[in-house]
Structure formats: structure tokens, C-alpha cells
Structure prediction request, 436 residues.
Amino acid sequence: MFCVLLSAGTHFFPLLVSAQSVTSSPYSRYGIGDISDKGYSQNFSMGGLGTAMQNDTITPFNINLSNPASFPYIKLTTFETGMTSNTTKLITSTQSQVTNVASLGYIAFGFPVTKFWGTGFGLQPLSGVGYNVTDTKNIDSIGTVNYTYSGSGGIDKVFWSNGFKIKNFSFGANASYLFGLIENNSKVILPPGQGYFNGKIIRRTNVNDFYFDYGVQYGFTIDSLGHRDLRDNIRIVWGATFSATSNINTMNNTQSENYFLNGYNYDITRDTIQFEKYQKNAIRLPEKFSTGITIRKGDRFTIGAEYSAQKWSDFMFNGVDGGLKNSSRWVIGLQYIPSRHTETNVSYFKKVYYRGGFRYANQPVYINGSQLVETAFSIGFGLPVGWNRHMFQYNVLNIGVEIGRRGSATVLQEQFVNVMLGISLNDRWFIKPKFD
Prediction:
């Protein structure tokens, strides 16, 4: 089963991720679109917590791409994949609209190489673009003019992660290859019957380049207070991640046209005003930093918090200032398991992983003199399926729900419900049998 899922995912996921839309937000018009930074299903249900997360004793082991320094703590071969669904209600002062987007979220594979080295690879979105906005203005001597802005696509990444451990200290790096197509279109639609032709500009940006980010973690265990041994050890982990400013190579095509609408409301090109093909440029992705801490009591209770920031004021898109502001994010998350990891003959619900989290973020978009703010609460469950302790096989179905909002109804507010459904499969590989 493990091999079949891995083989199918490896062959078909690149096709699926390149054809899907991962957002329907007008705010994805800015920068490189909506950033996918909530992590995998475990992180997602804990508000996106990940910088100081480790899986050194608790099975099933989850892949934590948020910090590559966590990879040496993976003890079993682990395969993860997940799907996401986003339902958003767009609200302005005069109207509202509901949109829904579902997509295959990620696929990842990790395993221990030695006692001090863990590695993994996979594929997931970095950002998504999906919007369609119309602005109407009345212009003297012309009449009603419609300005339409639309975009689609995004950037995906295939990654290779490595983490190494030296006593209580670990460090690692993610080497990613970024690729994808971002298309941004704008139209000016003039009143019919006055001899004017409409105009449109189509801009396509192909992204292809490497990107690197790094992480460290330091953890220690407290097993006694004074002269009294603790029933459950306390594990404290600090983590940090960093990525430097990177110039990501792009190849750009720009086409400007005059056109008119036929009787079926289709665009009919009258004349091509500008056509630039294969123009090399770059996207400047700004530096990013995060730090966090988690405290775990035995195998049952984990709580953590983290802070991250990115210098989006340095962002440039093909040589043009993106007009963004520096972003920041605060996260609190927790996980609780009613039964201890070693307990047997307990009810199923005492084996379930219960998770929750909260996220508050100042996003890089700046509109009408204020920065875009996003808040969200999350809750989730890890449901064990097909466990076999004797064969070292642990499978968990992860379900997470996130409810939040961003923006203001005076401009545009989004009230959203995100759902993530993931599966984590753990097995013991690379073991030579003693008996034939």
C-alpha cells in the first residue's frame, strides 16, 4: 500500500499541481500571490506552528518542512500527502460573493539515513494567484468605462531537505527548485457604438530557479525537579529558520492589443500594439526569519508559540517595486493525546490526536493607509488507522479546519473556512531480515 501510494503520487502530482488553482482571493493580485505557509496537516491544525516542532518519541512521525532541522528526529520512513479546500465569502460595503477552491496540497517523503541524519523530498505550492476584479468609472465625454483585472497560476516548489543532529543541537537546509507561471491581465472596456476600441495587456511570467532556506533547533529534557523524579519528562525545544534575499530568474512575455466584442461577447483582436517575448528578468524574494519554542509533557501534551517576519518592502517583481510592506506573524498551537504512547487496551478516542491553534498576521498588502490583517483559529484531529506496533507501521488520517478573516468590509473583507485532509504513513524500511 505504501509503495503504491508513493508511486502514484510521484507520477501524477506534478500534473495535478500545475493544472489547479489554489486561491480565489483578490488580494492574490499583489506580490507573487497568496503564500502557502501553513505547513502540512499537523502544523495546519496547530495554527501553522512548526519552527520548534520535533518528532523524536511520538509516533506517527510527521514531516515538518517548516524547519529542516527537525528531519534527523524522524525514526521511521514517512510518507505524507494532503488535500485542501478553501471557501471564502468576499464582502464589501455593498455586496458579497462566495467562492470555493479545492486542490491537492502537497506530497512528501522522509526517512532516517543514520542516527544523526534525516532526509526527505517532495512537492508543494509556494504561492497561488487567482482573482477577477472589475472597477467601473464614469468619464466625461466617454461614458461608463469598465476596468477588469484578472490573474491565475502561481509558483510551486520541489524540495530536498536534509537535517543533522549533534547531541541536543540540530541544523538543516531545504534546497528547492521553484517553477510555475503567473499570468496577470488588465482590460479597458469602453462604451459600444462610439467608435472606440477596447484595450488589454497580457503579462506572463515563467519562474525557474533555485531557492534555499535554513534552520536550527536546540532541545533538552527535564526528568526531575529537585529530588523528585517527574512522571512525565518535559521536553523543551527552541528553533529558528532563515532565508536570505534571493533573485529568482524569470522569463516574461507581454502582449498589448486593441480589440472589440462580437455578438457572442468574445474578444476579437483588431491590432497588436506590443509584443515582447522571452524577456529575462527576476523576482526579488526578501529575507525571512522565524523563531519559536515548544514545551512537551511526556507523549501527551505539546504547546508552542512562534514569531516570523519577512522584509517584503524589498520585494521587486521584474524590476518594479511591488509596493508591499514588511509582514509579521504570531502563532500559538497545541496538541493533546489522552493516552500515553506506551498504553495499550484503551478506547479509540484516547488514541486520537487533538489539535488547536491561533494565528495573527500583518500581511504585506497595504491598502487605503492600512496594512492587511489576518486572524484565524484552527482545530484538528489525528485519527489512527491500521496501526501495527509489532511491524512498526503507524498510519494516521489528519483532519484540520481553519476559520478566519482578513481585510475590512470598507475595502474588501474575506471570511474564510479552510479544510485540510491529509494522510501520514509510517513504516520501517531498509531493515535486512534475519530469517529467510
Notes: The chain has two helices and 19 strands.
